[in-house]
Design goal:
Two copies of one chain form a homodimer.
Chain A: H1 2-24, E1 54-61, E2 67-73, H2 75-82, E3 93-103, E4 110-124, E5 135-141, E6 144-145, H3 148-162
Antiparallel strand pairs in A: 1-2, 2-3, 3-4, 4-5, 5-6
Chain lengths: 174, 174
Amino acid sequence: MKSKWRSIGALLAGGLLGLTALTSDGATADDTQTTAAASPIYGVTIPKGYREWQMIAPAAEAAPLDELRVVLGNETAIKAIRNATLPFPDGTILVKLAYRKKQSDAFAPATVPGQPTTVQVMVKDAKRYASTGGWGFGRFINGVPVDQAQHETCFACHAARVKNRDYVFTRFAP
Amino acid sequence: MKSKWRSIGALLAGGLLGLTALTSDGATADDTQTTAAASPIYGVTIPKGYREWQMIAPAAEAAPLDELRVVLGNETAIKAIRNATLPFPDGTILVKLAYRKKQSDAFAPATVPGQPTTVQVMVKDAKRYASTGGWGFGRFINGVPVDQAQHETCFACHAARVKNRDYVFTRFAP
C-alpha cells in the first residue's frame, strides 16, 4: 500500500515537474507529459521535445559501459552553462542520451551510435530537491524508469565527484 | 593571377552561400557572414548560429585523430535526416564539431571534449556543386579554412564510402 501511494505520488509529481519544465521553455501545458512514467524517489519524467534541445557536449564511456553519449539542455540550461552560472537556476533540465558504441560500417576508425541504452535526466528545483543538492534525477531505459535502488545511487556519486560544479559532470563544449 | 581570382571568387561565393544557407533558416542577410574565410574550391563558410542547431549524432575517432565529434544540422538537415529523405534537399547544412579526447577529471572511465580541433561543414546545392555530388565542403581550424590540397580529398573519400547515402556518413541517433 505504501509503495502504491509512493508510485501515485511519483506520477503526480512527475506531471507537475513536466509542467514546470515545459513552461520554462515556453511550451503549453498540453505538451508536458510524454509519458506517465516518473522516476522513483524524484518523480522526474522524460521531458517532451528534449531531442530538439541544444547540444552541451559529447562524451564516451569505456568498457564495460562502452557508450557514446551526448548531453542536451533546455534553454535555461544552455544559458547557464554557456555563461558558467553556478548554481544552475531552477528550471534547468539536462538530458543525457547514451548509445552502445558501434564501429562505423563506412569508416573503420570511427565509432558511431549503436543501440540506445539509457536516457538520463537532471532537473533543478532547489526547494523541491533540497536534500539532493537541488537536483532531481531520472534514469530511463526504453522510456521506463529504472528501479529505486539505482536511483538511490545518483546523488551520492554526483555529490562525491562534482559538488563544486553544482553536481554537474558535463561542461559546455564550444 | 589565376589563383588570386579563384580566391576572390571563393570569397564572393562564400558570401552568397552564407546568404542562401541563412535564408533557409529564416535569418536575415545581415547574419550571414560570421567570417569572410571561405573554403578553397567550394567557397563554404562556417554558418552563423550553427552551435545552436540540433544534434544529429555523436561519434568518436580512434588514434591518431583521437577525437570526440558531434554532427549538428540546420532545420533542413534535421527534417531530412529524421525522415530518411535522400538525396538531401538544397539548403541542407551539416556541421561536424571535433574535439581532442580527454579523460574526465571527475570520472576516470569517461572521455570528454578537450581542445577543439576542426569544424567541418557540408552544404547541399545540387546545381552549384554538381561535380561533387551536390555537396560543398569546408574544413576549418580556429575558424580558418585549411588549404586546397586538404579540400581536394573531401569528396573522393565521401564518394568512395557513402555514395549510396548521398555522400553523408552520419546517421541520425534517436
